[in-house]
Amino acid sequence: MRNRPVDIDRLFHALGDPTRRAILDGLVDRPQSVSQLAQPLGITVTAVMQHLEILEAARLAHTEKLGRVRTCRVEAAGFRALEQWIRDHRTAWERKLDRLGQLLAEEDEIR
Amino acid sequence: MRNRPVDIDRLFHALGDPTRRAILDGLVDRPQSVSQLAQPLGITVTAVMQHLEILEAARLAHTEKLGRVRTCRVEAAGFRALEQWIRDHRTAWERKLDRLGQLLAEEDEIR
DNA sequence: GGAATTGTCAAGTGAATACTTCAGTATTGG
DNA sequence: CCAATACTGAAGTATTCACTTGACAATTCC
User: Fold this and answer.
1) Quick one: which residue's CA is nearest to D10's C1'?
2) How far does the CA of residue B10 sit from the closest CA of chain A (Å)?
C-alpha cells in the first residue's frame, strides 16, 4: 500500500491539517522557500519541513533544492486524485440516494 | 470555529481514517445498525460508535435511535461541502497554475 | 575566510487518536 | 418476568502527530 498511485489515505491525512492547508494556500500564490513559508505561520523551519514531506508524499506539493534554498511549489497530481475520488464516490452515493428517494429530501433540511 | 457550516477540518479528518471510509461505503449500500457495521469491520461496537460521532460531526452520516437500535445512514451535507471546497480551490489553483504555465506541464509527467 | 543564511538530523514532549475492556441501561421476544 | 439484544459510558492503552530544541552542514556574501 505505497505511493505509486496517489494514496487516498495520505491525501486526506495531508489535507486534514490546517497548517498544511495554509502552506498550500501560500504556495498557490507563488513558489516559496521553507523559511518564507515558516515565517507567517509562526512555526519552526523544521516543522514546515515535516509538513512538506507529508504534502510531497500526497503529491500535493513538490520541492526542489538549489544551492541552500529549497523551493516549494504546489503540485496538481494529488489534487486531481482527490477530485477523482470525489467524483467516483459522488456518483455511487447519488445512485444509492436516488434509489432510496425520500432519504435525500430528508437530508436536505439539515438535522 | 465550530460546526454551523460544515467544518472543513472535521471533514478531512473524518475522511482521513480508512475505517470511517469503510463505514461510509457500507452505509451507501443501505442504512445499517451499529452492530451491523461493527461485524464486518472486526472492531467493537464501541469503536464504531466513536467513529459515528466523528462522521456525524462532519455531516457525513446521520444516526437515529428507535427502540434499542440505532440506525445509521449516509448524509449528503458533508459530502457537498467537500465538493464545494474542491471546486473553490481548484479554480484558485488553476488560475495560478495557468499563470505559471510550464509548471503544469512539468507536473503532468509525474516526478 | 568568516559570518550570516538556509536547511537537515536526531531526539524529545504533550496532546490527540483509534482502539479496547468492562460495567451498566434500555428494549424486546418468548 | 427474564434473558438475550443493542447500545452507552467511563476509563485505560499504545500509537501517531505536530511541534520543539539543539547540534550540525552547506552556501553565499562581504
Assistant:
1) B46
2) 8
Q: Which three cell numbers stand for residue B11?
A: 471533514
Q: How is residue B6 annotated by DSSP?
A: P
pLDDT tens profile A44-66: 999 999 999 999 999 999 999 99
CA distance B70 to B55: 14
Q: How far is CA A74 from CA A23, A24, A55, B14, B90, in A?
A: 9, 6, 9, 24, 12
User: Which pLDDT score is estimated for A106?
Assistant: 47
- Cα–Cα distance for residue pair B50/B24, rounded to 1 Å: 14
Q: Name the amino acid, one letter, at A108.
A: D
Domains of chain B (ranges, CATH numbers): 8-108 (1.10.10.10)
Q: What is the mean pLDDT of chain A?
A: 84
Give B44's DSSP letter: -
Nearest-CA distance B50 → chain A (Å):
18
For residue A63, give the C-alpha cell: 520541492
- C21 C1' to B48 CA distance, Å: 15
Measured CA A91 to C1' C21 distance, in angstroms: 40
- In this structure, the strands spanning B32-33 and A61-66 are unpaired
A13 nearest nt, CA–C1': D17
Percentage of chain A beyond pLDDT 70 is: 78
- Residue B68: pLDDT band (50, 70, 90) is very high
